[in-house]
Specification:
The chain has 466 residues and is mainly alpha-helical. It has helices at residues 18-33, 52-65, 80-92, 103-116, 183-193, 206-218, 249-254, 259-268, 281-287, 302-315, 318-332, 338-351, 358-364, 366-369, 377-380, 385-398, 406-419, 424-436, 444-451, 453-460, and strands at residues 5-8, 37-42, 74-75, 96-99, 141-144, 151-156, 160-165, 173-175, 198-202, 225-229, 232-233, 298-299. The longest helix is centred in the first third of the chain and has 16 residues, at 18-33.
């Protein structure tokens, strides 16, 4: 039995789309589940639009989410000669022919199809003509001689049997008149040469699959198995496109989504295993199968992504969470200063409360990271004379304690509530504003303990409160 081999074959003509990431993930998980290989093929034959920056972004995105491909990237443009060779073989063995239709003739055929409101299919006028009839001033394209009669059945591993009338597949171009191969020829030749056993891709490729199967059969190559995954839609039910907000991994990375959480979300987007929701990486590989992929499109739900991310933040090892936070801060915010790192790390236990993203944790911990408190202008107005007295009285009692613990702080706070004839908010809010600059934030005990005695005393002595 052949070793399982899958591939992900993006075009570097734009940033990697979230739908592409899920396709790569399903290919990778299937190959790893079957103890096979997973390859990355860069389909860069569109020289006008292909850019190295997009290729680099694809590689970086896969690495970020934890998808590692085997071997080097397979660069399609380096294999053009092999594709042209196969086109000529198909021509030689009668499975392809030269078409001398001019651009004007093709346009006329398309115009007639539009008038009749039917899909355009090339009328095959050069299919059986002799070479001697060829005009001298037109460079021909090479078209594949598609089946005209009967039906073809695709035994799809996700969709089940898909049947199509052969006459609906036109004699498609495999070599343009400038000598360059088209997608269906290049993809077929590459998949054959790379020994692909399973082609797992979006179900918008189904018609291409029927064309590619005909090339395989004409060349007497062993057919791979095919699986077509339903596409991802927006929450409104429209097909997700590259223009949609939050369509690339960078969009998620910037707001502080953790790679493991997004990978788990994408795994569950259109695939299920029993009623399990959370999967470790090892579990993802162990349980993944093609049978669990649904037949209907999935909707990309940002609230579900945030909920999954929150779960990971709450439950992950705090050393790992701290590494994620410092990397995120350096990339998208400001680098956490060395002298603040220890305080932040110790405070993660409460900074992560109610945090859905790394950005939330960063914002929650801002008061620790800054050397000077930046006051919210609306909140500082809440510091009236009675609030200043609370701050002053707390500061006097706070200076007398040797060690900052909740047990040492609680009696001071309770005494202030009593002496100022107020409630917990009446004491906690002025202190929180004085120490963090905002009335919102972590609990007052957590704030005081995280800042430490020296920093608390310094902030409470700010002349704003005297």
């Amino acid at each position: 039995m052949k070793k399982v081999a899958t591939r992900f074959a993006p075009s570097p003509t734009g940033p990697l789309h979230i739908g592409g990431v899920r396709t790569a993930l399903f290919n990778w998980l299937y190959s790893k589940n079957q103890e096979g290989d997973f390859y990355l093929r860069i389909e860069d034959t569109d020289k006008e639009r292909s850019k190295d920056e997009y290729k680099d972004q694809i590689v970086k995105s896969l690495k970020w989410i934890g998808i590692n491909y085997d071997g080097e990237e397979y660069i399609q443009s380096k294999k053009i000669k092999d594709h042209i060779k196969i086109a000529n073989e198909l021509l030689k063995n009668g499975h392809a022919y030269k078409c001398y239709c001019s651009g004007e003739e093709i346009e006329e055929q398309k115009k007639r199809a539009r008038q009749k409101k039917i899909p355009y299919i090339y009328d095959r006028r050069w299919r059986d003509k002799k070479e001697s009839d060829a005009p001298k001033n037109i460079k021909p394209v090479i078209r594949f001689k598609s089946k005209i009669e009967g039906t073809s059945i695709l035994k799809d591993l996700v969709q089940g049997n898909v049947e199509i009338d052969n006459n609906t597949i036109e004699d498609f171009v495999i070599l343009r008149n400038d000598g360059t191969p088209t997608y269906n020829l290049s993809a077929s030749v590459d998949d054959h040469q790379m020994n692909m056993t399973h082609i797992i891709r979006g179900d918008d490729h189904k018609i291409n699959t029927f064309k590619q199967i005909q090339i395989y059969e004409a060349m007497k190559w062993e057919l791979p198995s095919f699986a077509h995954i339903p596409l991802i839609h927006t929450i409104e039910g429209k097909k997700l496109s590259k223009r949609d907000k939050a369509s690339t991994l960078d969009d998620y990375s910037k707001i502080g989504i953790i790679p493991d959480a997004l990978r788990n979300y994408l795994l569950r987007l259109g695939w299920s295993y029993k009623d399990k929701e959370i999967f470790t990486l090892d579990e993802s590989i162990k349980f993944f199968n093609l049978e669990g992929i649904g037949k209907s499109p999935s909707k990309l739900d940002m609230s579900r992504i945030l909920s999954m991310n929150e779960h990971y933040i709450k439950n992950m090892n705090e050393n790992y969470l701290f590494d994620q936070l410092t990397t995120y801060s350096k990339l998208y915010k400001t680098e956490i200063k060395s002298d603040k790192k220890d305080k932040i790390k110790k405070s993660l236990i409460f900074l992560k409360n109610k945090a859905k993203t790394l950005e939330d944790i960063f914002n929650n911990g801002q008061y620790i990271m800054v050397n000077e408190v930046i006051f919210n202008q609306d909140d500082i107005k809440l510091i009236d004379n009675s609030a200043k007295k609370v701050i002053s009285d707390f500061s006097a009692q706070f200076s007398k304690i040797d060690q900052i613990t909740r047990e040492n702080l609680e009696p001071i706070i309770n005494e202030l509530i009593k002496s100022h004839n107020t409630n917990f908010k009446g004491v906690g809010q002025p202190l929180r504003i004085a120490l963090t600059g905002s009335k919102f934030g972590p609990g007052i005990y957590d704030i005081i303990i995280s800042l430490g005695q020296e920093e608390v005393s310094k902030r409470l002595s700010n002349k704003v409160f005297t």
